[in-house]
């Protein structure tokens, strides 16, 4: 299973929307959200309280090709070694959540910041995706290619 973590600088930056798009784009993908408030009815994927350890989330995911994890806080769990971290910054004028700077620094992709061709090739191998599929992921995440 490949693990993709979507972290954000704050609330309402598009984490859930991106998780849905990635779940549609990637084969045998499952979405999971860790949060402080249960999701609104009709939202797809698994939900766990914010302090749930990765081992418990991983067990609940079962056998899937890609785990799309919506939770920056889970990056603090030493058991989780994500294959890709995507960071969605807060818009100008809004305050970042605590820990946002650290999560952004760990990210492989940051919305609005270009990625090099060399990094693209490395991600293709790491995620076991062809170039076209990975480019669709980049478009969904708002990451241009240099």
Summed up:
With 146 residues, the protein is an alpha/beta fold.
General description of the model:
By secondary structure, the chain is of the alpha/beta class. The chain has one domain (2-113). It is built from five helices and six strands. It has helices spanning 15-25, 54-61, 100-106, 117-127, 131-141; strands at residues 2-8, 29-35, 46-49, 66-70, 84-88, 109-110. It has a six-stranded parallel beta sheet, sandwiched between helices. β5, α3 (100-106) and β6 form a beta-alpha-beta unit. α1 runs antiparallel to α5 (131-141). It is globular and about 40 Å long. The model has no long low-confidence stretch (mean pLDDT 91).
What class would the helix/strand composition place it in? alpha/beta
Strand content range:
15-25%
What is the mean pLDDT?
91
| Helix and strand run | EHEEHEEHEHH
What does the largest sheet look like? 6 strands, parallel
Shape: globular
Overall number of strands = 6
The domain count comes to 1
Helix count, DSSP H or I runs of 4 or more residues: 5
Helical amount among residues, as a percent range?
Answer: 25-40%
Q: Unreliable runs, pLDDT <50, ≥5 residues?
A: none
Spatial order of strands in the largest sheet:
3-2-4-1-5-6
The whole-angstrom Rg is: 14 Å
Distance between the termini: 29 Å
